[in-house]
Queue: 2 jobs
Job 1
Amino acid sequence: MDPRILAAFASHHGVLRRTQLLDLGMPPTEIRRLLRSGALVLLRRGAYTTREIWDAADRYVARPLLLARAAVALTRRAWVLSHDSAAHALGMAILDPRDPYVHLTRPGWTNAWTGERGQAPPCAVRVAPGGRGRRPAGPRPSTDRRGHRS
């Protein structure tokens, strides 16, 4: 694979959108060929990582975090990570998650992408344009695996 594309994966925390690959000069036929050969892994429709990054990622934290970053990369409005996804981005230890969901919510709205009601929980993580999560200012709340304060 082109070193520029590998460098772009590294600088975007292992996740690139299809449009980014096209902007880097990779033709659609090459994307399809790399997907068929297994060199690229489809995280979500339009979001990819490399086989090396995916294989090196553990299934408990790193892979769910890649999936969460892919979801955020594909959103068009200001979404924040919440629940298990926020815990992974913040490096918080959580119990073994029973569901493989990516949790996103929009601050100030009454529903969340996961179907839950309510504002962004206190553990919500805002994702900067580079894909790096950052916690809002203030003390870090202790949360259970569903994002509720204890």
Job 2
Amino acid sequence: MTMPRSASVLTAAGLAAGLLFTTPGVARASWHLAGSGAALAKAGRMPIVHGVTADATGSSVRVDWPAAEVRTGRPVAGYRVVRYAAGTDTAAVVGDGCSGTLAATGCTETGVPDGTWQYAVRAVQGSWTGAPSARSAVSVHTAVTPGTGATTFPVSGRKYGPNSWARTCPGICGTATASSGSTLTGVRVSLRRADGGYWNGSAFAATTEQFVTVTGSLDTWEIAFPFSNFPPADSDYTVRVVASDSGNRSSESTSTFTVDAKRPEPGGVRTANAATGTIGTIDAGDSFTLTYSETIDPASILSRFNGSPIAVKVEMTQQSGNSPDVLRVLDGTTALPIGSMVLGARGYLQSSSQTVNASMSYSATDGLRITFTASAPRNGQSQPTLRSALSWTAAEGGTDLHGNHVVAATVSEPGNPHLQF
């Protein structure tokens, strides 16, 4: 319907003044009784707002427009901001800062989702609303705080053995966070040996990356992984953590650590005769030394032992028949977890068994040295004449600095057979 631009109205009650507005296809009017006589009503369209601008900062969009007037000198009562997804005519819900009817000619909408949007403004006068303005496009790319996936144990760059593994968690533990505005949906963890493959649940044998199932909550995850899963060798390992969230984002991290799983072995044994001693007899100052393939922990042999000289006893036993004499080191009456030394011949003792005072010390360079501080009584017994090689059968009780137990094995004194001590 095409509305007239003006109309005259004469009422029975008298002169009425009014305003008549139209929007496309619709005419609206209001009247106010002012007196009697002829009334002239002029109809006009609701103004359209022009010059709308929109600028994004993070997830906030600033929208500005110039004032619109019902007629010259008379601005409209308010404005309503409309937001559309780019390329559509479907209006989105306008958020805080620009919602409702606004009296100002600008506003800032906060929390706008990422995407390309188009803003329009409509003039408002009472219950009347003008047509939308031309749209102003803006792209919103919110700065997202990325999520994280990290390993808290083992710590990258550190070395671990049986004594230090799984002390703060069941094996491998870590944390994860989602990117801002999202929630965690999964955590995946893989473990790879530097000179081997990926852990496949039973061995480091997979040639492609395999992920291990985590337990606990996703933000503080853990994996049960006993030290016995590692092969008995020293090697580097890499943990890779991949965390994913509901925003279809993922984050990852890697950490590399070293495992000392190689057990120390007996390296050698030798005897030494004191400068003033008699060869073939056990005199004060005589000694025997045990060496290992790597540094051992003195406290694993005796809790109060730190490597400095400490008093011990050496038990010497004659074996039956023609079996050679055997030595063991004691703390009081308790045998230390060192093992036993076989002299290779008989005749070093005056009786079937006797104990002699000694001193024990240790250093990584010199090994474990036991020095007799008294002579073994002989009571006229002739010294042995059979030349032999000393052997040492190590016990598993001692450990290296990382807690790997000594391998129970036998080593012999190098060189030609000779009288001991």
